[in-house]
Amino acid sequence: MNPVYWISGLFGCIFFTGTVLADAPNEYVNYSDSGHELDFPAYHDPLDELDIDKSETRYQFERSSLRALNVQDPLEGMNRRIYRFNAQFDQHVYLPVVRTYVWATPKVARKGVSNFFNNLKDIPHLGNSLLQGKFQRSAETTARLLFNSILGIGGIFDVANSMGLPQQPEDFGQTLGVYGVPPGPYLVIPFLGPSSLRDGTGKVVDWAIEDNVNYMNNRDFMNDYQATWGIWAIDLRYQTPFRYGALDSPFEYDQVRYLYTKLREFQVDN
Amino acid sequence: MPRKTIRICTGLLFAIAFTAQAEQFDYPETNPFMATVAGTPNELKVPVPDEVDVQQGDLAVRVLPDRKLPPALSNYRDLHFRVAWHDEPAPLIFLIAGTGSGYDSSRMDYLKRLFWQAGMHVIVLSSPTNHDFIAAASNSGMPGMGAEDARDLHTAMSMALDKAQDEKGFEVTEYRLAGFSLGALNAAFVAELDTHLGQFNFSKVLLLNPPVDLYASVGRLDDLSYTRIPGVSDNDSFYEHIFQKLSRHFAQRGNSDIQANLFYEIQNSPEALSDPELAMLVGAVFRFSAADLSFMSDLINHGGRYVPADKELKVSTSLTPYLRRALFCDFSCYINTQLWPAWEALNAGRTIDEMAYETSLRSLQAFLHDSPNIAAVSNADDLILTQNDYRFLADTFGERAYLYPHGGHGGNLDYPQVAERYMDFLQGDAQ
């Protein structure tokens, strides 16, 4: 009746459909064999937004990767042999044992076992946090030890984690790193894998700390019941996600060496 | 008058709203680089069983009895593969991994569980470009030619199947075939080959994010490794740059407890990786695959490009010097310096474009168009496709082209809307 309504209505209509249409992607229409229309989303090239170096001296990848290969590894020949030994031990012995363990036990039991051994490791974590002067972290680790050992029934439940206190590993290799000790030569340790002179030494010290503290008499107990060392070893592998061959490269040794070195630098800094 | 207008108007709106609703694609990651690197967030993936709950095992077959390998690489003498099986008779699907990935990569493990869960036996094979396949199953030791790779794969598949059935004793009702990325292109060539051999008579073939023109696609991936990154000068290391970001993130966060969804956590922090950085990461991973490929291929063919022909690689021999040199060879370099001279020697007078055409899906266009049992899944923002490649998929596969507006290179394959559709195709009766 009133042309104003009519016109404004039409405008509104155009406006609305316009908005809706603008939202719909600009589609690529195609026809099927039977003749009906097929809608395909419009192509867009993600590379368009990148600034790709076309110069002759575009060596960013090479420069970065070559630097990553500069790791001090004077014992490389021996390390490579041990690396191969570890890989074969893993494939033929260690992993099959872990698979049997997984097959034979429920997840909740495995979790309890891992929690138990992790709780014991909080002893060297605490010692090293203190040595590095990280007092807040030391307090948190102390709280973890108390909550988990008491409320978590000797560490079987990681109640502290659910309370917002995740485990914060600190080992003696990191402590040495914090005081400026360089990693030294790269080492591959039989059964245990990648390490360095500094970190290998650190492992021995951490071991001695656990031995001497003998928290909840665990060392005495484990030495009395030697089979518990077997469970300890199985759990150690069960908790390690690394798989030989997972990097899908004939240069796996080189890549693992770099990643290990970076990971440790990273842990020392944090 | 106005009432009529309103009615038409509402009708129009409803129609549009309805189609938009029906077609709506709600995969959350719209950034192609993020999707490619991180895939679907865990909580939105199609749920699959845990690895320990899948009846599966790794097996190995000796495909090339005469192949000599030095001690440093002796673990690749046999071709290793993974099989997941059911006790009841069921269809078997072969799954082929993408460029430079092995049968045990995490993407393959996910797809394996998805297929296994749907009731199929699954055999997973490494990509013919992966170092283990080159060493153990590539006749020429020089992958990258569609037809030759298909012959190698077909042989490997037959042998793997025999071995798996011998060892595990399962029954197969029909054969299917799937591949991801370059593995999808391989699958298309294998399917075509099998129509001449009549051995498997694949009831379904599924191409997940295939390249169309292989050499163009690898050129695009090579390009990613030349991305300029703001803040990384001509003297900086790109990896150090990324590690510094991570380090700052952790310093800010206060503890170094690494969570499973670390990547999403970082992407939601001030230290989030930018698109050029993500692109460079994809490019770098790919360059390492290219280095592996170039090194392995040269070694098998005694080309002397990296390892002197008379040098034996012992377990204790450092391979680092060879990696240093192989790093300079991107995928295009491999094609130009290794593949092309070998091909030209057998095809005098023909051009490199003809070689490229032979390994592109374009050379199979009629076959792919006319085979109702072959479908392709891809995205409008897949990093490996040019606009023409994308159109080729739409034109060739028509109704069997499942093309989505976003998801990068394979980022949405585990997203329900996408996975359900291709699983329906695999399981469906339409031959």
CA-CA gap between termini of chain B: 53 Å
Superfamily at the CATH H level of the largest domain in chain B?
Alpha/Beta hydrolase fold, catalytic domain
Query: How many E strands of chain A?
Result: 4
Q: Roughly how many Å apart are the termini of chain A? A: 75 Å
Of all chain pairs, the largest interface belongs to:
A-B, 77 and 92 residues
Give the CA-based shape of chain B. globular
Based on CA atoms alone, the radius of gyration of chain B comes out at 23 Å
Oligomer: heterodimer
What percent of residues of chain A adopt helix (DSSP H or I)? 55-70%
- What is the makeup of the main sheet of chain A? 2 strands, antiparallel
User: From N to C, what is the helix and strand string of chain B?
Assistant: HHEEEHEHHEHEHHHHHHHHEHEH
* Poorly predicted segments of chain A: 1-26
CATH architecture of the largest domain in chain B: 3-Layer(aba) Sandwich
Short description:
Helices cover 61% and strands 6% of the residues of chain A. By secondary structure, chain A is mainly alpha-helical.
Describe this structure as you would to a colleague.
The complex is a heterodimer of chains A (270) and B (431). Chain A is mostly helical. Chain A is built from 11 helices and 4 strands; from the N terminus they run αββααααααββαααα. In chain A, 61% of the residues lie in helices and 6% in strands. In chain A, the strands form 2 sheets. A two-stranded antiparallel sheet of chain A has the order 1-2. In chain A, strands 3-4 form a two-stranded antiparallel sheet. Residues 1-26 of chain A have low confidence and may be disordered. In chain A, a hairpin with a 3-residue loop joins strand 3 (186-189) and strand 4 (193-196). The longest helix of chain A has 29 residues, at 76-104. Chain A has 2 domains: 3-55, no CATH class; 75-269, no CATH class. In chain A, helix 4 (107-131) packs across helix 8 and helix 7 (172-178) packs across helix 8. Chain A is globular, with a radius of gyration of 29 Å. Chain B is α/β, with parallel strands linked by helices and 431 residues long. Chain B folds into 2 domains: 32-213 and 361-427, 3-Layer(aba) Sandwich (Rossmann fold), CATH 3.40.50.1820; 222-346, no CATH class. Chain B is built from 16 helices and 8 strands. Chain B has helices at residues 2-23, 32-38, 106-117, 131-137, 146-168, 182-197, 214-224, 238-253, 262-267, 275-300, 320-326, 331-346, 352-358, 365-370, 387-397, 416-427, and strands at 56-61, 79-84, 90-96, 121-125, 172-180, 204-208, 374-379, 401-404. Chain B has an 8-stranded mixed β-sheet, with helices on both faces. In chain B, helix 2 (32-38) packs across helix 10 (275-300), helix 5 (146-168) crosses helix 6 (182-197) and helix 7 packs across helix 10 (275-300). The model of chain B is unreliable at 11-22 (pLDDT under 50). At the A-B interface, helix 1, strand 1, strand 2, helix 2 and helix 3 of A face helix 1, helix 7, helix 8, helix 10 and helix 11 of B.
